[in-house]
Write a structure and sequence with these properties.
With 202 residues, the chain is of the alpha/beta class. Helix content is 27%, strand content 28%. The chain has five helices and five strands. It has a five-stranded mixed β-sheet with strand order 2-1-3-4-5, covered by helices on one side. Strand 3 (148-161) and strand 4 form a beta hairpin. Helix 2 packs parallel to helix 4 (86-99). It is globular. It starts with a helix and ends in a 6-residue tail after the last strand. It comes from Helicobacter trogontum. Keywords: Lipoprotein. This is Penicillin-binding protein activator LpoB.
Length: 202
């Protein structure tokens, strides 16, 4: 009885997936702006990253660097009414920073906007484990501490304009000197969208 019920459920699920209406097709990223939504999408992230990276790499601070700086991703606050993958934003910015040859990114420590690689610390717990050759474990004092921190905030503001609604998104990124606490660089990117009130559900 159980096997029969399970088979029926699987069959109904398969039919539902196949019959969920219409042909699915790929859209080139260059053409996908035609299908944009009121929310934050791929093009918004790309625009914010492009402006921020250009501003950073052309800043007086970066142009004056002589040695590579170690960067840690700090907290990125999502002050919007929707789910936003903040790591996608910081990841793209950090990748461009590394490609410039002026920065190195550490995964040993991070805030909400980044990712910490747990294996860095898990492998260090093997120092007292007799099952592992202690000559192959990582000795103490090898981690490189960051001297720069990249933090940010994404803000959303909705304003009704007649039968339409204007949605303002603000992306702010800040590069802070960890030793001195001084801001070395910051940039603010605005993205504005207008849509009928019926299209804005929040």
């Amino acid at each position: 009885m159980y096997k029969w019920t399970k088979a029926v459920v699987m069959g109904i699920t398969a039919i539902g997936i196949i019959g969920c209406g219409g042909k699915v097709s790929y859209v080139d990223t260059q053409d996908s702006a035609e299908y944009t939504s009121v929310g934050i999408d791929y093009h918004d992230i790309e625009a914010a990253v492009h402006k921020s990276v250009q501003s950073l790499l052309n800043s007086e601070y970066v142009l004056g660097l002589e040695n590579k700086q170690v960067l840690a991703i700090s907290d990125v606050i999502n002050d919007t009414m929707q789910q936003v993958d903040v790591r996608e934003l910081t990841g793209k910015v950090a990748r461009a920073m590394r490609k410039s040859g002026k920065f190195q990114l550490t995964n040993a420590i991070s805030g909400s906007g980044g990712t910490t690689d747990n294996m860095i610390y898990n492998t260090r717990n093997l120092r007292e484990n007799d099952e592992f050759n202690q000559y192959t474990t990582t000795e103490k004092g090898t981690l490189i501490a960051p001297n720069l921190s990249l933090s940010g905030v994404i803000v959303q503001r909705n304003t009704r304009v007649g039968k339409k609604q204007r949605v303002d998104y603000s992306f702010t990124l800040t590069l802070t000197n960890i030793k001195t606490g001084m801001v070395e660089w910051d940039e603010n990117t605005h993205i504005i969208k207008v849509a009928p009130n019926s299209k804005v559900s929040w």
